[in-house]
Amino acid sequence: MTSAGMKRMTPYMFLAPAAAIMAVGLLYPIGYMVYASFLDWNPSQLISEAEGVGLRNYASLLGDASFLESTAVTLKFSTIVVVTEMVVGVGLALLLDRNIRGVSVLRTIFILPMMIAPIVVGLMWRYMYHPSVGIFNQTLKGWGLEPVPWLSDADWALASIIIADIWQWTPFIFILALAALQSLPRSALEAARIDGASGWQQIVHIKLPLMMPVLVVTGLLRLIDSFKVLEVILVMTNGGPGLSTEILSLRIARTASEFRELGVAAAMSNYLLLILLALTVIMFVYNKVVDAREAAVRQAAEEA
Amino acid sequence: MPRIRFESVEKCYGSVQVLPPFDLTFEDGEFTVLVGPSGCGKSTTLRMLAGLEDLTSGEIWFDDTPISHLEPKDRDIAMVFQDYALYPHMNIARNMSFALRLQKVPKKVIDEKVARVAEMLGIQDLLARKPGELSGGQRQRVAMGRALVRDAATFLFDEPLSNLDAKLRGKMRTELAEMRNSLDKNMVYVTHDQVEAMTLGDRIVVMANGLVQQEGSAEDLFKTPANRFVAGFIGSPTMNFLDADLVEADGRLFARGDGFDLALADDLARRLDKAARRRVIIGIRPSCFRPAGAEGAAGSTIDLGVKVSEYLGAQSILVTTCGARDLLVELESSSRVDRGKVMTFAVAPQDIMVFDNETEVRL
Predict the structure, then answer these.
(1) Is there a contact between B132 and A188 if contact means CB atoms under 8 Å apart?
(2) For residues B288 and B222, is the Cβ–Cβ distance under 8 A?
(3) What is the interface pTM, i.e. ipTM, of the complex?
């Protein structure tokens, strides 16, 4: 090979191992899943023995009450947790973005929940929610109040898993919001103080607008993540009571292992994938728009 | 417009004292410049006045009102920052009107004020743009405009020109000087650039190492510096300093040192105490050397070897050697100078300043 050709090939040669791993580890399973979603496939069969059914799996899912219920639960769960986590996380960041004694200790404590393995989080909360020995009902009893059926009542169960998720994932929003806050131009905030902005007005008029690009991406990341939540809920309620906490990923797992319908499970996964893809595309488009706007502004500044 | 008074104001960061207690007064309607090298505490002083930094002890008075506990917004001040500190997400009109909008001033009044100030600064075409779309000079004007729209009693400037290129800085300096005359406000201006300080300030406060070295008009500071630091800081090119012994001869006092023996002015000799052979530092400005024999040249002569000649157009700066020391000499460029040549200069006795070699106070 000529040295010029060699030079041109070098980056691709460095990329090759990663590309190969991507192909085997990501593209192959996705292709397999898409293919499987067109089959009526039982785990006891080889995939070559499964019967092709076209789009029947997709069509039947749209009329499947349990699947729609799961989707609704997932949407409800995701919306509530993401909105709450954003509000609480950003609020905490605004409160702790200051130099007072012990703030670094507080910050570290706040991000601890995120570092615990999801299974452990699920187990921990399941014990805390335990109807008789859990700390919540013990405390309520100590105050002379009625115990709450945390995980055994349909309405309470959804609220309970939402609380656990908020506990675990608010720190994620918090640290990203705090990083965004601390990278804001100090002098602009000082100028705002001199211009007469109260603490609240600084937040509304200066801090939040300037943090917005980071917050939008953070929110979307969290939304994508919340659609895929599984372990914590699996451990805490396993989808029950009834279908009240059966989020999509749990439904998919059950369809594959309990109902032994691999084709249908694959089709569900693809629906979920489409939702996530849409969110990801929104995120990329948003980033592109922000970048393009900044590029235009820079261009104008150079011409000025 | 208030008279601003610092009363034994002290500033410490933790256990580090950056500003030992000091007093300072800004008279009503005066343009005061705080000047000094970086780290001298001038910006901290300004930021304490603005309310962006707390005082460790002492008090700041606006007339008879103590204000150190007041929030910046309650001090009736406007400030121009070194990096302009514009709000990146607001267009220029909204940047300028932010304070007024917070005060809930009627929209019509805001529009009028913004339009008037924008016209005064020549930025009326930029009002719809975002700060990111402007050049450095335009941003600087907007920052100025934002302060002016406020109509505050006191204006604070924190090195407002230091991010501009040399040419633009000169232009903005002239504009500021014009603006100063048309506005009857207290203005406090911080800079490290002595040229800015000399051209803008009614009164200049020279600071170094957290201490006020001297305050006065540009002329006072140039002609009668209080100490060696002020003498060296004010004036460009900087003053030459030489170690010397005071020697009495023929009823006159001479400063004698490595390669020179210069007569001192009689009134200075009377002020210095009689003890001969006292170690001092003498200071001579580069512009005070005249080629010996030229018209108006008087006083003792000194021989200097020319090391480098920097041609600047109307003047040349010569780097010369006197014994083991380098001396700067400023000459009109009409007299051509070759490198390596030894020239004889005359220094008038009244152009020589004498400083104590320990306290560095001018004698």
Answers:
(1) no
(2) no
(3) 0.80
